Amino acid sequence: MIALVAGATRGTGRGIAVALGEIGATVYCTGRSTRERRSEIDRPETIEETAELVTAAGGTGIPVRADHLEPGEVAALAERVDREQGRLDVLVNDVWGSDHLWSWDTPVWKHDLDKGLRLLRLAVDTHIITSRFLLPLLIRNEGGLAVEVTDGTWEFNQTRYRENVYYDLAKMSVNRLAFAWSKELRPHGGTAVAITPGFLRSEAMLDGFGVTEDTWREAKADPAWLVSETPAYAGRAVAALAADPDRSRWSGRSLTSGELAEAYGFTDVDGSRPQVWRFITEVVETGGEGDPAAYR
After folding, report:
1. What is the pTM of this model?
2. Does 23 map to a domain?
3. 146 part of a folded domain
4. Residue 290 lies in a domain
5. In this structure, is residue 218 part of a structural domain?
């Protein structure tokens, strides 16, 4: 299996890349942060580190620096995969890189315009550019899988306003892209889905709360944090889809890692099956007193 994870440097992208490695895939791990140069986010994680984790998990990790806003760089990436592998079986669009660009609960007239538009370019344009150059390789053989990674399902997001207009548009747009790709891939036997993790214990989130993966329960966060998940959970969701010969039944859907965990029987690294979106809907938003442990 040949896979490419765009935005594999950290978080969900890294979790997906490593999980694909666990099922033996060769994974191209792309992003802007390398050991020689960091991206504007200025965090320590690198694509080389992710590739090494993929290889250690049993696959073959190949780091390739690429700015997915630059069509020339993405075209060169596609040409390299074609030259080296001759095909692509799984494409994951997980480029984000916008945590530093948006403000919580900020109306459009108060939000920095340049930052908001930059967020949309990083969160949406990158996915379109990547698909433009990689999908032709994916459809070369029937059965390809395209995965769009977002925050919140289509159904959840369409009835809620997500923080500010830029974030809201970005996350809804990515869900819609998966639906669009499902229509364009169907004549070629391909499948496209959107996947959302829940409350993610990413490297940045753990740092932000001043905790580690070993001490995450000590974070002073809202109740949904107690139903949080590791990046491996969404990673295992993508790996399960990639290994499923009948995955076309999911095509066009907007899915959660928890939903796929129930369908395929996998768990997070601690053996639990977090269902944070249900917890938010049934407990947090209703003011109820449900036990977070019951949603794990």
Report:
1. 0.95
2. yes
3. yes
4. no
5. no
What is the rounded CA–CA span in Å between residue 248 and residue 253? 10
Helix (H, G, I), strand (E, B) or coil at 170: helix
Structural domain total, the chain: 1
Domain with residue 83: its CATH number is: 3.40.50.720
Cα end-to-end span (Å), the chain? 31
Residues 33 and 7: their CA atoms lie apart, in Å, by: 10
Contact call for residues 146 and 191 (beta carbons, < 8 A):
yes
Q: What is the pLDDT of residues 175-224, one digit of tens each?
A: 999 999 999 999 999 999 999 999 999 999 899 999 999 999 999 888 89
The structure tokens listed for 203 are 């490297």
Q: Measure CA 8 to chain center.
A: 9
Q: What residues does 6 pair with on adjacent strands?
A: 30, 93
Q: How far apart are CA 8 and CA 51, in angstroms?
A: 9
The domain containing residue 89 runs over which residues? 2-205+230-273
3-state secondary structure of 276: helix
Residue 40 pLDDT more than 80? no
C-alpha distance from residue 86 to each of 29, 81, 128, 212 (Å) = 17, 7, 22, 41
Q: pLDDT tens digit string along 73-110?
A: 999 999 999 999 999 999 999 999 888 888 888 999 99
